[in-house]
Structure formats: C-alpha cells, structure tokens
Amino acid sequence: MTENAGPAGLSPAELGAYFALIEVSSLVRHAVEQQLRDAGDLSYVQFQLLATLGDAPGGSRRMTGLADGVVYSRSGLTYQVSLLERAGYVTRTTAAEDERGVTVTLTEAGRGVLAAVFPGHVAVLRELLFDALDDEDIDSLSRVLTKARERMRSIPPRSARSRRRNAGPA
Amino acid sequence: MTENAGPAGLSPAELGAYFALIEVSSLVRHAVEQQLRDAGDLSYVQFQLLATLGDAPGGSRRMTGLADGVVYSRSGLTYQVSLLERAGYVTRTTAAEDERGVTVTLTEAGRGVLAAVFPGHVAVLRELLFDALDDEDIDSLSRVLTKARERMRSIPPRSARSRRRNAGPA
DNA sequence: TATTGTTATACTCTATAACTATA
DNA sequence: TATAGTTATAGAGTATAACAATA
Fold first, then answer.
1. Which of A89, A167, B10, B31 could cysteine-pair with B14, CB 3.0–4.6 Å?
2. Which tens digit of pLDDT belongs to each residue from B93-128?
3. A130 touches B: beta carbon within 8 Å
4. Which of B57, B35, B56, B55 is closest to B44 using CA atoms?
5. What are the backbone angles phi and psi of residue A11, rounded to the nearest 5°?
6. Residue A14: closest CA among chain B residues belongs to which residue?
7. CA B30, CA A70: separation in Å to the nearest integer?
8. Of B24, B118, B131, the CB nearest to A145
9. Residue A159 pLDDT > 60, yes or no?
C-alpha cells in the first residue's frame, strides 16, 4: 500500500489538480463566452473556428482539419460553420484536391470580428487568470498542459470511432 | 517595449497556456461526461452537485452554497436539483434557520450512484490525464491552478451581479 | 426593500441517424 | 466499400424575467 492511492482512487494531489482544472477552466470559459457574445455576438466555438482559420495559411482549412479539439461531431461543425458563413465571416468552397471536401476560408469581415473581439478577450484573460500568475507559473502551466494535450491527442478520440461504430463489421 | 507583449496581446507563453488549458479541459470534460452518462446516466453538473454534497457535513447544503463554481444561474441550479430529486438522489427540505431557504441532502441512493460511477471516472482521468504526468507535474499543475482559482473566486463573479442588474436604482 | 428559490419560456448547442456524392 | 460533408430531428442545458414567500 502506497501513499499514492491505488487504482481505486486518486491521490490528494491528483484530486486537487483535477478539481482546480475543472473550476478554473469553467470560470475562464464562462467569462470569455460572455465577452465574445457582448463584443461580437460570437459563441466560443465560433471564435475558436475563426481563430484557427486566422492561424492557417491563406486563412483556409478543410472542414475535417477545422474540427480538431474544437468540436466533437461532424454535424456540430457543419452547424457552426453555417452560422459563420451566414454572418459573412467565412466562405465555403469545394476543395480543389478532393471534390468531396469543403474548404472553409476566412473573409475580411471574419478577420474584422476577430480583431474587434480580441482586445476584450485578452483583457478578460488577464484579469481573471494571468494577473494572478507570475512568469514561472505560466511556464509550468503551459508545459504541463501541453504535455497532457499531446498525450490526449495520441489516444484514439471517441469522435474518430463514432463513424466506425455505425458501419461496423457484417 | 518588452518581450512580454503589451496590453494589446498575450505573450507566447500565455497564449500557449491558454490554448492548452482550453483544449485539455474540453477533452477531459467531454470524456468524463460520456463516462458519467454511460455509467450512471448523470450529467457532469449533476455529478458535481452530488460530489459537493458528498463532501459536505451531513451530506447537506443550502441551494446557494451548492451553486459555487458549478452553475451560473439560479434557475439552472433549480433545474438540475429537480432532476436529482426526481431520480431519488437528493431530497429538498425547507431550511431550518431560514424559512426562505432550501436544504438539499444526499440520499443513500445518491451515495450509491456516486460510488457506482467513481471508479470509471477515475479510470478516465488516469488514462487521459494523469498517466501522462509525473508527480512533479501534478504538483505544479495543482499549485498554479489553485492559485488561479483563489484569484478568480475573489473577483466579483458576474452571477452575483446579475441580480443587482435587474433591481437597479429606480 | 432585499433575498431565496421556483417557474415559464425561449433559445442555443449537441448528437444520432439517414442521406448524397465523390474516391 | 470508405470517406467528406449535410440535413432532419430530437433532446439537454442555460439564461432571463416574472413571480411568491420570507427576512
């Protein structure tokens, strides 16, 4: 018997990390969602999609690539992208290389909202999260969470399985 | 001009920490939500409420105290607690000290679901999060996030303001 | 008058399954 | 046959505002 809580439970340190992770991320997300709603009438998912496109070369991505870590079902992605298209923030075109695919591209208006929303976004993060942390805190937070993220990405995500479940053998 | 990104933006370290925080917490939450659904037909919020009660003396809490860090509107809390009551996991009684208040109490059945759901819950956290981290990682994660949480709790939460907004001066 | 909690309602988001079209 | 994406639909969750009751 170790001090480390066997397979049955979590150690106190793990429990503490878990609860803090959930509470902090909830509060951050909730606060940021309000700000995005107020400043640009964007949901958080929509913001993430726009930001992902903003970082992509040419402001373009295929639907599939856009989903990573943001949305957990195909229909959900279609839904959100439809809203963005209706708002004029992205365009959808048939992919050049694969006629089945759809390329989503950020428009000028899309870059506009991003720019409009960004300062307030940053302000919320500063006030709520980063003002409480020194450089070292931020570094270790980033380091540990990045490590965790890489692990998670390497594990078969449920969304990848979901298709296969339908089209099972037989 | 510092290397530290002025008020206009976030430093690369901050950006990295922020994105990793959002992605990791989303993935964790999503995975855990599925597990809770499968194992006990509980939403994550319901699980949090039960767990909060499980930690409380006598398994009881006032509605207001139950909301902290879990739910962001009173009606949302009422809704979730109603579901829990209907399922037989909690009871609601008029508070002894304040006739306006409601005391929510965990039932035996409530403790039962918690127990039933817990091992799988822990397993998901291990596989997804903790297996990737060593003890030191977990300690710093816990330390930094706890620091952040304390800061956030000390800031006037929007939910506290919301009431006042309605009943503004004349 | 302020606070606790509930209710009614409207809305957003998500997920499953069925479907189309291309590879 | 497998993959990319869309659509229809149904359900869960959330928030706002109006409300009742107690302090």
1. B10
2. 999 999 999 999 999 999 999 999 999 999 999 999
3. yes
4. B35
5. -70, 160
6. B138
7. 11
8. B24
9. no
Unique residue bearing structure tokens 């997804």: B128
Mean pLDDT of chain B: 88
**Average pLDDT in chain A:** 88
Q: Tokens 């400043």 map to which residue? A: A39
Number of H helices, E strands in chain A: 7, 3
CA distance to A125, A150, B143, per residue, from B154 (Å):
15, 32, 17
A93-130: pLDDT as tens digits: 999 999 999 999 999 999 999 999 999 999 999 999 99
Contact A149, B23 (CB under 8 A): yes
Name the pTM for this structure: 0.88
> Would you tell me which residues have their CB within 7 A of strand D?
A 30, 62-64, 74-75, 77-79, 81-82, 92, 95, 98, 100-102, 163-164, 167; B 43, 45-46, 71-76, 79-80, 83, 98-100, 162, 165-166
Flag whether pLDDT at B150 surpasses 50.
Answer: yes
Q: Please tell me the predicted confidence (pLDDT) of residue A165.
A: 31
Residue nearest to nucleotide D1 (CA to C1'): A167
Calculate how close chain A gets to B92, using CA atoms only, in Å. Answer: 25
The per-residue pLDDT for B68 is 86
pLDDT of residue A157: 57
**Residue A59: left (phi > 0), alpha (psi -120 to 50), or beta?**
left
A32 has a pLDDT exceeding 90: yes
Q: Which residues of A75-113 are buried (b: 16+ CB within 10 A; e: fewer)?
A: eebeebbebbeebebbeeeebeeeeeebbbebbeebeeb
